[in-house]
Amino acid sequence: MRWALVKVCLAVTTMVVVAFAVPLGLVIREMASDRAFSDAERQAAAIGPTLSITADREQLTRAVMSTEAGAQGRVTVHVPGDGTRAALEIGRPRATDGEIAATRELGRESIAKVSGGSALMTPFALRSGKTAIVEVFVPEDEVGSGVTAAWIMLAGVGVALVAGSIAVADRLGARMTQPAAQLASAAHELGEGRLDVRVPESGPAELEQAAVAFNSMADQLLQLLANERELAADLSHRLRTPLTVLRLNTASLGSDPAADQTRAAVDQLEHEVDMIIRTAREARPRATAVAAPGAGCDAARVLPERMELRSAQAEDHGRGVPVA
How far, in Å, CA of 296 to CA of 227, rounded? Predict the structure, then answer.
């Protein structure tokens, strides 16, 4: 039962962790990618004002180098030619001419997969009416920057949650199974004859009710056995008086064989009665750590009954027994 509860909790917690961790991991990856391309957009936007003013190579080169990506060689400016000047290209291009032409024709930024990462191409209008393209290279490791660490952290949190749930389930299972184990052990001891064994009334409500019922059953069984022993002892004690009379009568029968047989039968009967009394007196449940509740007796009622037996025994030996 304890292990079953642990397995159920493990399965439920694992499903919950997977249901939350996997989408969250995908969201983190998308956020990292959006962050990388947003940074590339800012790098490209920093060159836009210069393109709107001039198409001079030197000034454009200075504008490109003033950006962080341009200083790292990841910015390329594509300026188309017109009737007065040739086409201008500053930086190391990574996108193909077809991709650049498609972006210029669409008039909005686009992303192309290139070797080692992606290229963000942003169009800017020139004073001449032409469209220049600013290409910013985004490396693959920058797109996934921090994703691995975040996934490792998520995995650690998930493992911690699963381990915590297992620990909690184990403690709950122990709280449920310990009273059940105590109840089973007490039932086993009761079957072996330890009649005053009792079960602590604790644990879940159902097991607590079972413990109460077990203790009540054990108390009733102990009381029934005590009544049975008392009945046997009382019956044996009542037999002592007529047995004493028989012994006295057999003493006056003489010494013929019939009298001897009668005296032998009386001796055998007395021996059997003594055995019954001794067995009833010694038949007590073995002591355990928990005492039976409500043990006691009324001495004023019990003593006269016991002294009746002792008086008969004393008469057999010619002794007097005064009772105060």
Answer: 14
Strands of the sheet with 131-139, listed across from one edge: 88-90, 75-79, 131-139, 117-125, 110-114
Q: What is the pTM of this model?
A: 0.48
Query: How far apart, in whole angstroms, are the C-alpha atoms of residue 55 and residue 124?
Result: 12
Q: How far is CA 246 from the centre of its chain?
A: 74
**Measuring CA to CA, which residue among 166, 157, 118 is closest to residue 25?**
157
Q: For residue 319, how many other CB atoms are within 10 A of its CB?
A: 10
pLDDT in tens, 162-210: 888 888 888 777 777 777 778 888 888 888 878 778 888 877 777 788 8
Q: How many CB atoms lie within 10 A of CB 227?
A: 10
Identify which has the larger pLDDT, 286 or 159. Answer: 159
131-139 and 110-114 as β-strands: parallel, antiparallel, unpaired?
unpaired
What is the SS3 string spanning the chain? CHHHHHHHHHHHHHHHHHHHHHHHHHHHHHHHHHHHHHHHHHHHHCCHHHHHHCCCHHHHHHHHHCCHHHHCCCEEEEECCCCCCCCEEECCCCCCHHHHHHHHHHCCCEEEEECCEEEEEEEEECCCCCEEEEEEEEEHHHHCCCHHHHHHHHHHHHHHHHHHHHHHHHHHHHHHHHHHHHHHHHHHHHHCCCCCCCCCCCCCHHHHHHHHHHHHHHHHHHHHHHHHHHHHHHHHHHHHHHHHHHHHHHCCCCCCHHHHHHHHHHHHHHHHHHHHHHHHHHCCCCCCCCCCCCCCCCHHHHHHHHHHHHHHHHHHCCCCCCCC
Nearest to 45 by CA among 146, 120, 96, 105: 120
How far is the C-alpha of 74 from the C-alpha of 71, rounded, in Å?
Answer: 8
Specify whether domain 2-148 bears CATH 3.30.450.160: yes
